[in-house]
Amino acid sequence: MSLLLLIPLSIGLGLIGLGAFFWALRNGQFDDPDGAAWRIIPTDHPLGTEAKTDSKPASETKVGNAL
Question: What is the C-alpha separation between 17 and 30, in angstroms, rounded?
Fold first, then answer.
C-alpha cells in the first residue's frame, strides 16, 4: 500500500526538481559561475600594483642548510 503512494510521490518530486533545473538553465543562472565569486572580493588597490618581494625563482633561493 505504501509503495502506491511513495512511487508516484518520488516521480513527482523528481519531475519538480528537473523542472526547477531547466527553469534555472533557461533564466541564465549558470551563465557566469565565477563572476559572482570574484565580485565579493574587495579591490582596494588596482591590479598589478602588488608588492614585489623577490625577483629570483624559487629554485635559486637558499633554504636552510642544504648539503
Answer: 16
Residue 26 CA neighbour count, 13 Å, CB half: 6
All cell numbers assigned to 65 = 642548510
CA–CA separation, 50 and 7 (whole Å): 59
Query: Residue with C-alpha cell 533564466?
Result: 27
Q: Which amino acid is at 10?
A: S
The distance from CA 26 to its chain's CA centroid, rounded to whole angstroms, is 20
Answer whether 46's CB lies under 8 Å from 52's CB: no
pTM to 2 decimal places: 0.49
**pLDDT digit string, tens, across residues 11-20:** 999 999 999 9
